[in-house]
Design brief:
4-stranded antiparallel sheet; mainly beta; 1 helix; 6-stranded mixed sheet
């Protein structure tokens, strides 16, 4: 049994429509010490060229729930602008269907939780990775 007093969290974002990591997605980490407690924002980071957030803040002792907020709209708007440079005839309204994605999950002290986000313009999925 682990002697750690808190859980730890990591994440990465993969753009499944492009088949590559999603670079530059802002991620905020929040935690709470019970299901009815108030969320405490701990800080954030942005995904690197490999789609990973390597510097998310540590969770405080007593954390039972974690929320990851992904700001995906700027990523898709940038991707759309780059695509329009190559093919301006394919412009659309510019709306992003999922401007943000919030993932909430329960944690247990001493465990590590890797929670990847698989993202495309009209859907997403998450899972507990390793």
């Amino acid at each position: 049994m682990s002697t750690d007093t808190t859980a730890s969290v990591s994440t990465h974002v993969l753009d499944t429509s492009a088949g590559r990591p999603a670079e530059g997605v802002a991620v905020r980490l929040s935690a709470r010490p019970g299901r009815h407690a108030v969320w405490q924002e701990l800080g954030g980071s942005a995904t690197d060229a490999d789609g990973r957030c390597k510097d998310l803040p540590a969770l405080p002792e007593g954390t039972t729930h974690v929320r990851l907020d992904f700001e995906v709209e700027p990523y898709f708007l940038k991707k759309k602008a780059e695509a329009q440079q190559d093919a301006p005839a394919h412009r659309d309204s510019g709306a992003v269907f999922f401007p943000e994605v919030a993932i909430t999950f329960a944690v247990t002290a001493g465990e590590h939780y890797h929670v990847p986000l698989l993202l495309n313009p009209f859907g997403y999925s998450v899972y507990r990775g390793s």
